[in-house]
Amino acid sequence: MLENAELVLKETWNVMGFSEEEQAERTVRLYDALGSHLQEIVNGERSLKRKYLKKIAENSKRFYELNAELEAGLPDLDDSLGLLQLDRSLKNSLKILYEEVKQRQEKLNELREREKELCDYLKEDQIAIDLQKEVPSKGDMAAIERCIQTLLVEKEYRLKTFRRLKKSLEQLMEDLEQPNKSRFEVNVLSQMEELFTLSQANLQQLNRLVDGYEQKVKENKQECLELQEKIQNMYSRLEIDPSEHLHVFGHTPSVLAKLHEEWQRLDDLKRENLSRLINQQRRQLEAMWEQCYVGEDDMQAFQPYFSDDYTEESLEAHDKEVQRLQAYYEEWKGIFMDINKRDKLWRKFIMLEEKSNDPNRLKSNRGGTLLQEEKERSRVKQELPRVERKLEDLIATWEKQQGRPFLIEGKRMNDYIVDQWHHYHQQKEQEKEKKHHVRAKQLEIESRMGTRNQSLLQKRKLPRNETMKSSKLRRIGEDSSCSSFATMHSPVRERRGVLHEFNHNTPTILASPGSKANTITFSSDNTSYSHFSEELMRRSEHEKVRSSVINAKSRTPLLAVRPTPRRPPPGLPKTPMTLPRMATRRSPRLNSGQRLSPRNLSTHWSSRRNLSTQQRSPAPAHSTTAAFRSPYHTSSRLTSTRKNKLSFLI
């Protein structure tokens, strides 16, 4: 291009007529101008290069800083790119990073504003963050978010606490019938919750306010309960009609005022009835003394009980003493219950001992009463020592805690138990001496008068038993030659003097003139044959009466007139030595088609007893009831003496 330009210039110069020297000069000037211009161009390009290098360096530094601070994770620059491409790439990367910085700044400002709002509502300090930093880090953003979340949770908790306290305050002020007084209470009870700042100080103040009102309501409630209890007790003491009782509910100041008014009215009535109220308290005090086993000395120490002054001070002293004993009993109720249990066992033991000494208990042995008494006696004897050992442990623990002896009716426990046993044995000795004295007195009377009181010698009678009577009659029938009916119709003969005079239970045979029947009567004093024979033996020894019947040593009246011992007929069961069973059994002497029920037996023997007061003719031997006839029955007759003796047993 320069060569073409030089040729064009030379042609132009030739046309114009420049000489070669002038053309050479102009060519030099041309080259100088071109060189200068090229130098300017080169310098300009070099300057541009330096400018791009500087710009790229600055942008690269900014890129790496932002990329690191924002943690954007953009890739590093490619060194193989030219300056223009590198500059363009840097511009694009920086644009992305600046956009991220802008978003973070906006989010940071929003979080800080939210945090400030919560902190102002809760009266808390904001989190400390370096605001001088151009680019907020992710850690700072996360910290602010955590702070905001914590503030939200705290706000929710405080809001719930506020609502709970507000509800309690409303109820308490309603119970106290109290209007809103302070500005603080007005703000709390306002319908707009936003007006109340949920600061720690405000909540603490609200909590103290609620606690104060709760304490006041609690005091009112306790006072109402105490007044109601006192009023009810006074109603009972004064015996006021239920229709006149005050019926109120709740514990508001108005209810409390009514209770105070009612109590004042009852207090006036109490002053008018002091004597009756003091006597009532004395009865209650006596009951507490009995429950707490208070001794005589402790009773005497309470002087108002024995005073005749009926004053309010005396009534108050009685009330305090009753309350003290009630509290003492409730505190050690376990010990007193065990003492009471032991006393019940002791009384049961004494009662069973008295029953065992009662001779009449054998007459009422129905339903296994004696066996039940024996089982109960065994249980009491086992339970009594166990309860006493338990009491010893409890009282030892009590004395160790209290540092003083535990007294039961003014005595230590061991002395209390020993005194009971001593009294028990002393009472038994007194009863024994009393019986001995009565016996000695009776013997003295007998020695003087020559008589003997049969009521003192009467043995225990067995209960009436139809089976026993039938068994006795069967034994009699086995050895007799006639029926049991025939033994009651012996011929009239004069009794022996000794037997007739002193045996009051011997039947008296009366014969009416002109009749063939005999009437047999018995004395009203019924006793056993052993008493009868014992009396005869005693009289025979004193009056020297000689009789083979009296001097015979036998257990049954039949053996007194038999030379050989009585044996049951072969094939029949032996007579048991024990009492017969109450249940009716079928006798082997009954016919196969005949059976007597207990009712029939009772009717039969009732008719037999009635025969002693009726006149009847002697029944023939063959008319004896077959049901009670021995299978070895013969027609031989008993002697008169033996028949009389059998008549006593029937």
From TrEMBL:
<keyword id="KW-0175">Coiled coil</keyword>
<dbReference type="Pfam" id="PF03999">
    <property type="entry name" value="MAP65_ASE1"/>
</dbReference>
<dbReference type="GO" id="GO:0008017">
    <property type="term" value="F:microtubule binding"/>
</dbReference>
<feature type="region of interest" description="Disordered">
    <location>
        <begin position="560"/>
        <end position="650"/>
    </location>
</feature>
<feature type="coiled-coil region">
    <location>
        <begin position="203"/>
        <end position="237"/>
    </location>
</feature>
<dbReference type="InterPro" id="IPR007145">
    <property type="entry name" value="MAP65_Ase1_PRC1"/>
</dbReference>
<dbReference type="GO" id="GO:1990023">
    <property type="term" value="C:mitotic spindle midzone"/>
</dbReference>
<feature type="compositionally biased region" description="Basic residues">
    <location>
        <begin position="640"/>
        <end position="650"/>
    </location>
</feature>
<feature type="compositionally biased region" description="Polar residues">
    <location>
        <begin position="589"/>
        <end position="639"/>
    </location>
</feature>
<dbReference type="GO" id="GO:0005737">
    <property type="term" value="C:cytoplasm"/>
</dbReference>
<protein>
    <recommendedName>
        <fullName>Protein regulator of cytokinesis 1</fullName>
    </recommendedName>
</protein>
<feature type="coiled-coil region">
    <location>
        <begin position="91"/>
        <end position="118"/>
    </location>
</feature>
<feature type="region of interest" description="Disordered">
    <location>
        <begin position="463"/>
        <end position="484"/>
    </location>
</feature>
<feature type="coiled-coil region">
    <location>
        <begin position="370"/>
        <end position="397"/>
    </location>
</feature>
<dbReference type="GO" id="GO:0051256">
    <property type="term" value="P:mitotic spindle midzone assembly"/>
</dbReference>
